């Protein structure tokens, strides 16, 4: 008799050691961990779970331990009755060259069946249909179509006698300012592209007028393509469409944008809107929601996270509260150098460097601060609060703090306590003045750094407290000028859009300066009370008259000399503009 090792025809143990059913796998894994005492990580590895997923499974079992825990979950119906009922009709309509939206309209018109465009597209995709190519008008179903407006062409611009109503009556109040600072001349001095149909000045003027109306997103121009008033203000027979706006902005480079920015700053200086004694500097991240892999991630404060965004830089004149520099072509690693680019921009334009700069702690590095000091530029910034530094501040005796009274009328916290120190920091060549400030409205003390060794603490604190003006300006740019309104494909050149925001905010500031009591009002307030109005426009051989309806704030326009006076508009072939009130 020969003894042989018994062989198993079927491996019954694998049924328990390597279960295939999800519920059985959960049961075996939990039994190994709870009954047999197998460590959690080993049980997870043995049955194919991640350690964290297995811990969640154990938690769920402990909190929902009943006899239904391992029961299969009943799924809902796998059929789609509404789609199945009209599937054949959808296929028949597509074979007749109907689009998704045509099919939806036909289903709604022929019976109670109503499907969304997404549902119809899913049915067509399941049946193997591709997207329809672009069709000619004669290939489309016989149904009402959108009315097409005229194509923008300056050669077809007409000043024939007529009368019409416009929804953009307020923009005519701004045209005297356009004529005053000679926008056409400014654009002509810069390498902006143009064509015989739409010259460069007309293209920039059209985009700027849309920005003045709060129509930042390129598609919003389609709301006004039939408005004769806006086309007349731009000097065209019709407003350029959304496609043109996107294509035009894509033809602009940084050189042309920077040159127009420089000429605009000259206008601001001539109008004495820029004092140039001190500037507020800040970054702003414009969120991007597309899938372009070349758009970098930056910290977005409004969302408190790092995400895809376009990083922009702004410089604001502290006294005039107008933006005088912008740059939206920044890449990672270039942030710290942008303050030096602004200094170089100002030196090239005016032959001198800025005298005083105020900015946040993350705007640049200590090495760049040292370079500013060597150029003779005074600055005020914040020092980052490390745990060691805050522990050192907490140990200071009460006698080291002195109280300062700030002369800021509308500020809630007017009596902060301060400590004046001198420090040496790595990367900075020299001694910095460090001012510790508490009771300024923050939970933790603020730590100011400046190279101003001689001024009293009170003016330094007062000046830094006014740095929030740049935050207010950015808020107005976001809320009214839609600075953050990037489309999913970034259809507008971001740098050009930011430039339009800078110019538009400056024009609003010029306009507000003429209105008594509204000198510091924000753009959205000016637009709501004075510019958001319809008007009756009459074109005659001598002049163009714009008749505004009566409103409560019009006496301010009369006192400012904006009513009943005439202004010659260069792009109207010498005709004048006269604004009256009904």
Description:
The protein is α+β, with helices and mostly antiparallel strands and about 575 residues long. The chain has five domains: about 15-65, Arc Repressor Mutant, subunit A; about 80-140; about 175-355 and about 470-530, no CATH class; about 360-465, no CATH class; about 535-580. The protein contains 21 helices and 15 strands. It has helices spanning about 15, 20-35, 40-45, 50-65, 80-95, 100-110, 115-125, 175-180, 185-190, 200-210, 230-235, 240-250, 255-270, 340-350, 365-375, 385-395, 455-465, 470-480, 495-515, 525-530, 555-560; strands spanning about 160-165, 280-285, 295-300, 305-315, 325, 355-360, 380, 400-405, 415-425, 430-440, 445-450, 535-540, 545-550, 565-570, 575-580. Strands 2, 3, 4, 5, 6, 7, 8, 9, 10 and 11 form a ten-stranded mixed beta sheet that branches. Helix 3 packs across helix 4. The longest helix is centred in the last third of the chain and has 20 residues, at about 495-515. The termini are far apart. The mean pLDDT is about 85.
Brief summary:
The protein is an alpha+beta fold and 582 residues long. The protein is built from 21 helices and 15 strands.
């Amino acid at each position: 008799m020969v003894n042989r090792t018994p062989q198993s025809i079927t491996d019954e143990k694998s049924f328990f050691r390597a279960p295939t059913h999800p519920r059985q796998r959960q049961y075996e894994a939990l039994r190994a961990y709870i009954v047999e005492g197998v460590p959690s990580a080993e049980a997870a590895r043995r049955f194919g779970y991640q350690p964290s997923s297995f811990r969640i499974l154990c938690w769920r079992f402990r909190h929902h331990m009943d006899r239904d825990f391992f029961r299969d979950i009943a799924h809902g119906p796998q059929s789609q009755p509404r789609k199945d009922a009209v599937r054949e009709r959808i296929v028949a309509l597509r074979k007749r060259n109907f689009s998704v939206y045509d099919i939806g309209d036909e289903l709604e018109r022929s019976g109670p069946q109503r499907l969304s465009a997404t549902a119809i597209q899913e049915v067509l995709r399941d049946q193997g249909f591709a997207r329809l190519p672009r069709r000619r008008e004669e290939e489309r179903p016989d149904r009402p179509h959108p009315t097409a407006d005229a194509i923008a062409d300056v050669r077809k611009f007409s000043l024939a006698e007529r009368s019409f109503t416009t929804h953009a009556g307020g923009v005519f109040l701004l045209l005297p300012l356009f004529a005053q600072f000679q926008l056409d001349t400014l654009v002509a001095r810069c390498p902006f592209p143009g064509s015989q149909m739409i010259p460069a000045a007309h293209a920039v003027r059209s985009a700027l007028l849309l920005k003045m109306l709060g129509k930042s997103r390129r598609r919003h121009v389609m709301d006004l393509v039939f408005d004769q008033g806006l086309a007349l203000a731009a000097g065209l027979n019709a407003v350029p469409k959304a496609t043109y706006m996107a294509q035009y902005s894509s033809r602009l480079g940084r050189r042309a944008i920077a040159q127009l920015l420089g000429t605009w700053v000259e206008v601001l200086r001539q109008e004495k809107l820029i004092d140039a004694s001190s500037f507020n500097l800040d970054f702003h991240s414009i969120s991007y929601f597309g899938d372009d892999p070349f758009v970098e991630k930056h910290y977005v404060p409004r969302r408190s996270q790092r995400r895809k965004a376009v990083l922009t830089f702004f410089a604001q004149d502290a006294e005039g509260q107008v933006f005088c520099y912008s740059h939206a072509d920044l890449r990672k690693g270039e942030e710290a150098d942008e303050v030096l680019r602004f200094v170089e921009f100002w030196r090239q334009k005016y032959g001198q460097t800025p005298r005083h700069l105020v900015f946040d702690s993350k705007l640049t590095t200590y090495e760049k601060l040292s370079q500013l000091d060597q150029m003779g530029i005074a600055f005020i910034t914040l020092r980052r609060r490390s745990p060691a530094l805050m522990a050192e501040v907490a140990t200071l005796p009460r006698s080291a703090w002195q109280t300062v009274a700030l002369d800021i009328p509308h500020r809630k916290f007017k009596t902060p306590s301060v400590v004046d120190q001198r420090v040496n920091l790595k990367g900075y060549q020299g001694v910095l003045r460090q001012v510790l400030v508490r009771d300024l409205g923050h939970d933790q003390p603020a730590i100011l750094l400046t190279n101003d060794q001689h001024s009293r603490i009170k003016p330094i604190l007062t000046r830094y407290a006014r740095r929030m003006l740049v935050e207010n300006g950015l808020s107005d740019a976001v809320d009214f000028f839609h600075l953050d309104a990037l489309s999913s494909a970034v259809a507008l050149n971001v740098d050009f859009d930011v430039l339009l925001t800078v110019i538009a905010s400056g024009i609003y500031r010029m306009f507000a300066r003429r209105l008594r009591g509204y000198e510091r009002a924000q753009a959205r307030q000016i637009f709501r009370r004075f510019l958001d109005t319809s008007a009756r426009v009459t074109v005659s051989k001598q002049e163009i008259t714009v008749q505004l309806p009566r409103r409560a704030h019009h006496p301010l326009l009369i006192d400012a000399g904006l009513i009943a006076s005439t202004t010659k508009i260069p792009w109207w072939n010498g005709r004048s503009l006269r604004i009256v009130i009904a």
